[in-house]
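idk why but the lab printer keeps eating my pages so im just putting this in chat instead. protein + 2-acetamido-2-deoxy-beta-D-glucopyranose:
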Amino acid sequence: MIILCLLLLLSHAAESLYMGTTLDDCYAVARSFNNTCTQAPKAPAPWTSTFKSITQSCPDTRTFQLKSCQIVVMLCVSCSQNATTGQVRMRVQTNGLPRGHCYGGQCPAQRKIDFEVDFNKNVSMEKAITFRSNNQFDDKACSNMSLKVVPTWTNLKVYEDGHQMDDIAGIAINGGIIKAPIVKYMMDPYFPTFTLGRNFTQSPTFDTCLGFVDEQSTYGYIMLSPCISNSSMIAQNRSCGKDPFCSQDIKNHSLYFQNRQERVLGIAKDGHIIQSPFFYEGSFIRCTNLDQCGGYFMEQQTYVYTWSNIFPYSMTCFGPGSQPSVYTARCSENTCSGRYLMEVGLILMALLQFIILI
Ligand SMILES: *[C@@H]1O[C@H](CO)[C@@H](O)[C@H](O)[C@H]1NC(C)=O
Ligand SMILES: *[C@@H]1O[C@H](CO)[C@@H](O)[C@H](O)[C@H]1NC(C)=O
Ligand SMILES: *[C@@H]1O[C@H](CO)[C@@H](O)[C@H](O)[C@H]1NC(C)=O
Ligand SMILES: *[C@@H]1O[C@H](CO)[C@@H](O)[C@H](O)[C@H]1NC(C)=O
Ligand SMILES: *[C@@H]1O[C@H](CO)[C@@H](O)[C@H](O)[C@H]1NC(C)=O
Ligand SMILES: *[C@@H]1O[C@H](CO)[C@@H](O)[C@H](O)[C@H]1NC(C)=O
Ligand SMILES: *[C@@H]1O[C@H](CO)[C@@H](O)[C@H](O)[C@H]1NC(C)=O
Ligand SMILES: *[C@@H]1O[C@H](CO)[C@@H](O)[C@H](O)[C@H]1NC(C)=O
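predcted complex ->
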């Protein structure tokens, strides 16, 4: 058993897709985005007519009038290097409308996002976040302000053209917004619990891409979107509730259409990469592999988040977290604490066996 454990640990460490901090590394990540602009990845696009857009026609299924909306998509992810400091920075510009798929519901409005941040900065455990109790963790994880404050060492700059980003975790490779896990109701919107005594009266209506249109009429995802890999297999012009496969098992729907590969799915507001929930060899990244913020170290100092079908879906805090996921959020039924404790038990048992053997 211990050999099996060691083998698993080693295979994960040895084969991960390493992403460094150089300008070329940044270009490679910027090219993962389905940019509409011609300037990417070497330069940002000015918010003028020279910012090339593409137009998608989608039905407005909410009105039943078969009215269609023209969705104008603008996405430009670029990199630069500061001549004095050598720091590589990534600029992310999107109008918040994802490229390559439609929506189930009303036509969403544009939401201009424009920020620049130190790219994939090396982090050390000195900056790690520690939670002292489950209550303290709940206060963070179950709040819609959890991702409001970005650490200053990321040198995040929000351009004036962009709107506020308090509710945003990051931007997906199709330009869509990855929202913070808690939107408004202080509950996991897919799997609410009632243990905190909060009155959860309304959940947003998710479409089959698992995105939703918020009160500002802008579009965003929380759970990993099945439309990020290959949207052609998904009937996009309806809500999840009206799709048998989606409504029956939303978590399976989220994962089923993914390419089971370790790859870039987006960029977080703090400049760290958001990965697919798979290791290099295709196995699913589980809570046990993640720290309390929802990220993990790919290499010594390379810290990444995963986008998955388990709360917090993207991240609870800007990591690293100093602890593995020991605390679970009481505002979600979709965590995997039980499994963590079970596996710790198994490892302890294996260690004991090992000790007894020698
Ligand atoms: C380069 O970095 C320095 C120090 O952070 C800053 O003052 C300067 O504005 C930066 N240059 C550019 C072109 O961003
Ligand atoms: C980019 O989006 C277009 C649709 O607008 C799609 O046809 C194409 O496959 C996408 N490219 C990548 C690399 O995802
Ligand atoms: C980040 O860490 C890696 C490995 O420790 C190192 O090779 C690289 O030069 C570091 N980058 C910066 C910008 O310090
Ligand atoms: C959090 O929720 C409160 C109450 O619903 C709301 O006023 C506030 O705007 C929300 N904040 C964010 C960042 O969504
Ligand atoms: C929950 O909130 C709704 C609307 O705000 C209200 O109508 C309902 O009575 C509340 N339920 C409880 C149990 O407090
Ligand atoms: C997407 O799915 C369709 C239907 O199964 C398939 O023909 C196509 O090759 C897939 N595209 C990618 C990029 O995986
Ligand atoms: C919705 O999508 C289905 C297949 O994905 C298609 O058959 C149908 O015509 C679409 N409806 C509208 C109103 O576009
Ligand atoms: C997900 O759905 C597919 C297709 O129906 C099924 O084969 C698979 O067993 C399901 N996976 C889980 C974990 O339920």
